[in-house]
């Protein structure tokens, strides 16, 4: 049982990626469990196999404890701690090969408080796990925003302590030239540094961003670049994401024997 | 008119710092306007001079647009765009020397989406402004969390594009030894690197964190360290924060002539 924890800032497309990637894995005859860890989500594009809203529901928390929307979100995520055993049992019962964990909308409330990393550790137990960190394509296409996303990605990497695959979601919104430009920026720390300084960024900040890129390189890899493109809408890049996760989770051992799907 | 934009992750103590720092400035005979920019806050420790909840209230947005707590927070922050002129006029009418801007609970929804930086730019206009970024003391006292906070701080610095003073809030929760330890870690990139590697962090990540520290150094300063300690509860460090902001906002020109308050 492999756990893939999908993390990214609000609106980056976590749930849509869980939906599309789950379908892709099933199409390739792999068993999938989709786990919703967001007590406040109102609508999901997929049918969750395990849903924390059965234990904690942010709307109910809001009414019962007379909290505002802010307080209810924080409190309901903290309340998940009481249900980690139930969640873990429900996941085990699915006997899935891959467990896709969809995390709360705001990564700040999840990754940057103590509850989120604790809940993840408890749910994973001894199983192998990786984080799939997603950047919003709209952010990645601006070098300054790209740099700030890299800091967030490394911050999540450190907070969650899991091997991490980094992907730009909503790749369908990018023109091929934009993808080439982003790829060129992230395929070497020097290129990123030069692109940022060319955009007027302070050299010390550009240097820190370039170092972040190095630190985000996959474990045991000599390649600095670690940013893949994926689209939940078109399915573009799902095979690439799978290969990268597989590398991290099972040292490249492949569980699906189909031909890779076409890239466009 | 100087703007001080208080930013930090959920629960870091932004509102309490606005309260305490506002009182400190007034005690030193400086005119202060306290601006609440959080449409979802339920309770504030201070009486805001300008309050965006008069224009947008997250609870009302939730009911009117039938949104969940998550969606209501995102939508209500986006709606601030329509009221930047009103907010700016209200602020101007206060004729304050210092405008303390208290930002929404979740910095992710504010600093890492486009609305927040836009609203801030519009409200500030031609006035001088700085960000006061706060780290939670509980986070700063663990080297790995400290590193992840440094990435967040630099990310905010890049997103908001303002000179930035970085402070550890809730210093009253730290023992003097813990403060010394944190200070030693942040007073040179080498020390931070060594502390992180000693805690088992991957050297590339530790290097990125050390670079972040350099990049967070105040503009025009040769000192790499830029982390101050402050307590809204005891008042500790408010004079230090003031001096650091003053350095950034007015090149060190001082508007208050009192003796600095004692440090403990």
TrEMBL record, chains A, B:
Q: Which UniProt keywords apply?
A: GTP-binding, Hydrolase, Nucleotide-binding
What Pfam families does the entry give?
ATP_bind_1
**Annotated family:** Belongs to the GPN-loop GTPase family.
* Family annotation (PANTHER family): GPN-LOOP GTPASE 1 (PTHR21231:SF8), XPA-BINDING PROTEIN 1-RELATED (PTHR21231)
Which protein are we looking at? ATP/GTP-binding protein
| Species of the source | Pyrodictium abyssi
The organism that produces this protein has a lineage beginning with: Archaea, Thermoproteota, Thermoprotei, Desulfurococcales, Pyrodictiaceae
